[in-house]
Amino acid sequence: MNNLKSEEVTVRSIGYIETPFDEKFAVPRQSSLISHGHFEIHFHPPYDAEEAFKGIDDFSHLWISFLFDRINEDDSFRPTVRPPRLGGNEYKGVFATRSPFRPNRLGLSVVKLLSVNRNHGKVSLIVAGADMVNGTPIIDVKPYIEFVDSIPSAVSGFAREAPVMHQVSFSEEALKQIAETGIPDFRELIEEVLAQDPRPAYKSRHSDERLYGVGLCGYDVKWQASESGFTVRYLEKA
Amino acid sequence: MNNLKSEEVTVRSIGYIETPFDEKFAVPRQSSLISHGHFEIHFHPPYDAEEAFKGIDDFSHLWISFLFDRINEDDSFRPTVRPPRLGGNEYKGVFATRSPFRPNRLGLSVVKLLSVNRNHGKVSLIVAGADMVNGTPIIDVKPYIEFVDSIPSAVSGFAREAPVMHQVSFSEEALKQIAETGIPDFRELIEEVLAQDPRPAYKSRHSDERLYGVGLCGYDVKWQASESGFTVRYLEKA
């Protein structure tokens, strides 16, 4: 039914996204759970041409197709993964999850379109809610079409409900350091990222004494978990 | 920010979809507007392994990433397209549309999961509502996650509302021929396809005398447009 030609195709990135997440560990596990932080999609020429975005301002949300480029390309296909949602100790089929460890390493996220930057005929997009590492290659941008894409009645298996959010507090030192960075809404961003518990899933049910670090906006944010939630201790310039 | 390695990647099809649409002309312009007809996603080994689908039955809807393989790969990038929605005579930026004429020829559709076929450890998926030509290469399957993907408040520009549906009627001869094919729900499928007016957009405001043909389920379905709607005249074996 398929000719051989269509079985393989070369995909080129059309741009990349700038996010506050310097490493995989910092990235929220779904899009739309993060509302703070600066996210900008930059396009390579010729995809940055202003006319290629004519009409995009009329849409509130966009689908971003991207490549999980931090996943080893040479990894052979593994049919099952252990979703963090299930505590990391239950296997699901890769096609029943959005795990990055999948054929073709294709990622898909919905983002909110905040504004369209037009500068001398070149465009970049400011968006909210992306779950991608800083520099992730973008391969397509499409409008979200409500009457097709929004299915409030959809049944979503083990991902039925939004994840539980954890309490996040800050030491005096951390608050002082955060203020000194001058990064807008940096405290709120840290709160949103930690509230989702970025620890490996098998740890997430326990409190431990360990000092964790998470790379955000060029800083290594040091924090600890306790019974009552997470506490940010201090920041280090990465 | 990006290394060169990540700018290009080879994508392999993991399978293909069997649909009633023998040609581009027959394909509905959005997914989810078609509820009849047989749609089955077949997977190439090793992606057909039963364990790769463990848990998928718990989801009602899936995202299908596919390749627009009927679009000429050598077409250079064109920043604007003329959406059929706008009568085909207004230009929009390609990133503000879901036109198949786009970088990387990546398609994305949400489908309803009807059932999971398991046969000697191999899986195929029966789905409803796909807007793909028969044999379209599939490159990924992901679950639809309601709390992330469904955004009823999303604003959708020129695609704000579902398209207007047209009235479809059948000649006696067509009804007899359709019955003789033995294809389940074939009449309903033809109705759904024609109701969306598959004619080129610039024709869709006019009635004309022309006899159109549309390739469905191995038949060339012949029909005409009039003031009051569309009439199916007869079928020819394709």
TrEMBL record, chains A, B:
Record GO biological process: methylation
Domain of life per record: Bacteria
Tagged with keyword GTP-binding: no
Lineage: Bacteria, Pseudomonadati, Pseudomonadota, Gammaproteobacteria, Aeromonadales
Assigned keywords, A-Z: Methyltransferase, S-adenosyl-L-methionine, Transferase
Organism whose genome encodes this protein: Ruminobacter amylophilus
Gene3D superfamilies: YaeB-like (2.40.30.70)
Family to which the UniProt record says this protein belongs: Belongs to the tRNA methyltransferase O family.
Residue ranges occupied by any TsaA-like domain in the UniProt entry: 11-153
GO molecular function, one term: methyltransferase activity
Cross-referenced SUPFAM superfamilies: YaeB-like (SSF118196)
Designated name of the protein: tRNA-Thr(GGU) m(6)t(6)A37 methyltransferase TsaA
Pfam family, one: TrmO_N
